[in-house]
């Protein structure tokens, strides 16, 4: 075992999951936290002013993420946009309507106020687009060399519809798996920016709010079982979490997975698999087979789901495992991201 | 004006207030955020699933703080306790019952897992004591030299009683001002630990949850106008914020302000005024004169309010200013903390 924090503990893959289990859940675990959903679901009883699970009061969704991306500004976005979209999306894929955000800033002494201002403007635009209000904040400063320009932690509150219950435990054999668009765009943009690699067609992060897409999807298809945003660790890690939590197997068809040509080239050049690369404006949805085509149609009509595709299905075999039929016909097991890949992608 | 972030922007004094106004509120300002309360108050309408101010649904309190204290462990507490208490207290002084927390960790590569574990154990104990549940989290890792062991951002959700409306704008001439105990303990503990100064009687941080004290206070005295936790910037900065927001003057009596002998000595040695030093387990409360003595009695019966004292009153004169009658009889204006004092106190 490790005695010190490794970069891989922030990867969103195996090491992240292990640290969360061994250090955090071992001590802090409770029914809500240990379910490891994108957002916690909390019930508030307006009558008694006491917390009260599964009663008549509104159920709220609650989620947090820190953002430490480097560089701060990249093609398609910046740390501010990411900080709003990331938290909005964790609420949205939980099936909730995102309403309110908090933002806590850890600034490094010497950071340019002008850059901070650009980030704040970008956050405001992102809030406006997503229809959320930033209602509380915090500002701390650390001495030069003890931080890295700016870290932002956003926390979000959303509201659940009365009788909706999405969960990463809900996938059932026979269900179909849809991805809302091309994969790997965000991660490859950050990596190639950092490595100073230029591609003929410029890469661009997919960072975007998904709450309008999820609203339309849930209105059209109330039978949706699970949604999840495949951020750090990519589609592979998300699907492995799903297979474990729902105690099912997952079968994928590589040929059906949408990957932009320029992402594909960048991945080849850096020796990476797009299945492990982070996304910031995509979701995975699990839906009963009979509703799959109508959901896909609705998604494709939405600007955030234009390239949506069915990429596989939930099976009763190989419980807890993700197996992919590859382009050349063979089958391979797709595991969670194991190493570090790349730190500070979000 | 400044072009770069200064340490003083994290002091909780004038520079902090200026940065929040100029950079954050200028762009992100809205009715809730711009009121600059310890917690945002949000109304959720359980019927329509839409945000709706001042309606029948429950009103929730929402607040966030990042913690970057150095050293991580200090007499009386550690960064984990502080991260729980700080957010619990911002909910409590808003008059809300703290219920749920999120915690986002930014870990530096190489940080010892054992230290992280100690912090997590400490957070769990603090959550148990305060009666709150940690329901969601996040874990990011930054490369060595780009962070400082661990930063923690906690965000809290609390519930307001049906018709309670505390606000920093509510102080009225004639009201009395009470502090719940000795001031400067937390800040002087951190500073003397960092400077390697040892005092005959060991200093200890006052970090503590205040939600049980506030509950008892509000039950006994529903007329309470304002509560506030004088953290960064100390009692002086908090009272200046109060004077400005309520458009009143504040008169203080130096002789009545409780300061521990060892804090007093440490302050003298380092040339500091305890009025500007951070507290992490104290509150300031403003109460109509007729209820002051009964509230004080209730506070003194509580373990967190044993040393409570009336320190001054709200006046119609010198609006926006805090004036103190000093020990030797003269009057002086007590301004907000102006410089940097000490970074990373919480
Ligand atoms: N330090 C922690 N303490 C407790 N729970 C944690 C901690 N870090 C993460 N978790 C929990 O683990 C689960 C996975 O967290 P993770 O951050 O990977 O999800 P995510 O926010 O959807 O992904 P990303 O952070 O890449 O956007 C969540 O349910 C989260 O609440
Ligand atoms: N970056 C920011 N953006 C928007 N609002 C902010 C920001 N930083 C602070 N605020 C707001 O300014 C007010 C004062 O914040 P501050 O952090 O000083 O209060 P506090 O949490 O009570 O004190 P402390 O952080 O010392 O515990 C709060 O209402 C807070 O919401
Ligand atoms: Mg997520
Ligand atoms: Mg997330
Ligand atoms: Mg704060
Ligand atoms: Mg406060
Ligand atoms: Mg605070
Ligand atoms: Mg996260």
Automatic annotation (TrEMBL), chains A, B:
It holds the Pfam family AIRS_C. InterPro entries: HypE, PurM-like_C_dom, PurM-like_C_sf, PurM-like_N, PurM-like_N_sf. Transmembrane segments: none annotated. Residues 56-159 form the PurM-like N-terminal domain. CDD domains: HypE (cd02197). Residues 172-320 form the PurM-like C-terminal domain. It comes from the Bacteria. NCBIfam families: hypE (TIGR02124). Belongs to the HypE family. This is Hydrogenase expression/formation protein HypE.
């Amino acid at each position: 075992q490790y005695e010190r924090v490794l970069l891989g503990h922030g990867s969103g893959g195996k090491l992240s999951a292990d640290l969360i289990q061994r250090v955090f859940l071992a001590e802090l675990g409770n029914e809500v936290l240990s379910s490891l959903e994108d957002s916690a679901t909390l019930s508030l009883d307006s009558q008694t002013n006491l917390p009260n699970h599964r009663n008549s009061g509104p159920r709220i969704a609650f989620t947090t993420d820190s953002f430490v991306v480097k560089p701060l500004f990249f093609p398609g976005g910046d740390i501010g946009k990411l900080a709003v979209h990331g938290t909005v999306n964790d609420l949205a894929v939980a099936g909730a309507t995102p309403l309110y955000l908090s933002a806590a800033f850890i600034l490094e002494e010497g950071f340019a106020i002008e850059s901070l201002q650009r980030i704040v403007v970008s956050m405001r635009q992102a809030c406006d687009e997503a229809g959320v209000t930033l209602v509380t904040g915090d500002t701390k400063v650390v001495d030069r060399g003890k931080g890295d320009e700016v870290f932002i932690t956003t926390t979000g509150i959303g509201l659940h519809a009365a009788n909706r219950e999405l969960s990463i435990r809900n996938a059932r054999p026979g269900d179909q798996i849809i991805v809302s668009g091309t994969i790997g765009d965000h991660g490859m943009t950050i990596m190639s920016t950092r490595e100073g690699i230029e591609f003929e067609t410029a890469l661009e992060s997919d960072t975007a709010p998904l709450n309008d897409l999820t609203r339309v999807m849930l209105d059209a298809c109330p039978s949706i079982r699970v949604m999840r945003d495949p951020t750090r660790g990519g589609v592979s890690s998300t699907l492995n979490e799903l297979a474990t939590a729902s105690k099912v197997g997952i079968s994928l068809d590589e040929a059906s997975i949408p990957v932009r040509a320029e992402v594909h080239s960048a991945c080849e050049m850096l020796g990476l698999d797009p299945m492990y690369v982070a996304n910031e404006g995509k979701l995975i949805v699990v839906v009963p087979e009979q509703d799959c085509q109508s959901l896909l149609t609705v998604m494709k009509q939405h600007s955030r789901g234009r390239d949506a595709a069915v990429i596989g299905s939930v099976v009763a075999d190989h419980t807890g495992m993700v197996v992919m039929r590859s382009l050349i016909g063979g089958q391979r097991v797709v595991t969670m991201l194991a190493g570090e890949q790349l730190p500070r992608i979000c």
